[in-house]
TrEMBL record:
Cellular-component GO terms for this entry: plasma membrane
Protein name (Swiss-Prot/TrEMBL): Urea transporter 1 Solute carrier family 14 member 1 Urea transporter, erythrocyte
Topology within the bilayer: Multi-pass membrane protein
Natural source organism: Larimichthys crocea
Pfam families reported for this sequence: UT
Chain ranges passing through the membrane: 16-38, 45-63, 99-122, 129-149, 155-176, 183-206, 212-232
Location within or outside the cell: Cell membrane
Similarity section: Belongs to the urea transporter family.
Major location (coarse): membrane
MF terms (GO), sorted A to Z: urea transmembrane transporter activity
Amino acid sequence: MLVSLLMGVFSSAGDWYWWLLLPVCLGSATCVFLFSGLSSLLDRWDLPVAVFPFNTVIVLYLLCTGPENPYFPHHPATPPGALETNGTELIAVEVMRGILLGVGQIFACGALGPSLLILGAVLLYSPLLAVHALLGSAVGTLAGLSMAVRHDSLYSGLSGFNGALGCMAIGGLFFTFSWRTHLLAIASAFLSAYADMALSNLLGTVGLPACSWAATLTATLMLLLTGSLAAYRIPIRQVRAPEHNLRSRSQWEAGNTEERESTDV
């Protein structure tokens, strides 16, 4: 789904360009094979495949075609730190709107109405995920402000969506929610946002987008953490909604407490 969305977003061949269905079908099928291959590799470390296949396929597709391709042309990506006149005055309302759009940009949606619907759907599924999505998008926008990225990146939500993904992944999805993992989720949002700016500036030199590489790599590194935080890690095959994960951990801890009390002599 993400591959087809991004192919349509970056295509410069105009609306209703039916030939685009060919790379969409081939790219989507390739994702399945990549997912299967990466699963056998990453399962050894109990790591999720996440969106590694999507990020790989969309970058390869854009590299193979190019902006001037006669059949499948696409718009080149612009680095967020591109040198251009960047005014010092910000429109606060647009920045706040950009935080909401950061959630919608996870699905390549840059309109406020659909972004609110997406956020509402996440809220219905898990209030904790919705809170972390907004928090991560705000953190990503703050990181963009600190690096003086182009204003349209702030206003369109592109500065915030990787922060939202990084914050959601750690703040209750792959880790049981607690004040420790909440702080770790904020750190993950900052790291995802800064990594996204670095990768966007690097790949933007050849007209490629960074997609969600930053959040995917950051979340994977967070899952490899050891020490006290590793105790909050949820096995990949047991990952559910954050509220379900929290209840399961509470029941598990209660069961362990009762077991210890029953064996005391």
